[in-house]
Write a structure and sequence with these properties.
The chain is mostly helical and about 240 residues long. Helix content is about 60%, strand content about 0%.
Length: about 240
Amino acid sequence: MSELLPIPEPVTTADVGDSPVARKRPKPGERRMQILQALAEMLEQPGAERITTAALAARLSVSEAALYRHFASKAQMFEGLIDFIEQAVFTRVTQIVGRDPADAAQPAEGGAHQAARVVALLLQFGERNPGLVRVMVGDALVLEHERLQQRMNQFFERIESSLRQCLRAAAGAASSSTPTVDAQVAASVLTAFAQGRLQRYARSGFRRLPTERSGFRRLPTEYLDASLALLIRPDAA
């Protein structure tokens, strides 16, 4: 996962017990990030929807007890990944929607452009972080605490709300008789499109090259500009 920390250094003596060679203790919070990094990378592997703490501990060469010194439960580990997803995505969404206002001279085109940038941001984030896609679409959260899936549902509701904000101005500028309704419909369609692309990416096993069976890429951003051009039309927003 490119946006988190690099793969962890060898574990410390505090995690593995006695060791003939003393190793540098990680900085505060660094071990937590290493655990989350390892979990995200394991989620990239085929059939990795269900990961046990034993398997995670083995990947890090630590005991399960060492994991629980940093996280009270596996649910907390997934919450850490969700926290990262939310912060990484919505920090940038705010920059697009809040700090990049639509062109006052062309509000329809400006609002549509903002919406397209939000969708592109979401899909590019998933493409760079395939392990997190399994969390975003819920595959990794099956049989986990229901609050985790609720948080991801709320994540996409916030995405839809941001898109609605972008498209409301576009719909009004297009002289729509129902700009609020039109913006709601368009935002819902775009959100479903983004979720579908992420689902397809996860179902394809994160293939990055054409396969013998399908013959085409499964990347979330494939034909993105052409797809968004069909979905977002300022004159009909």
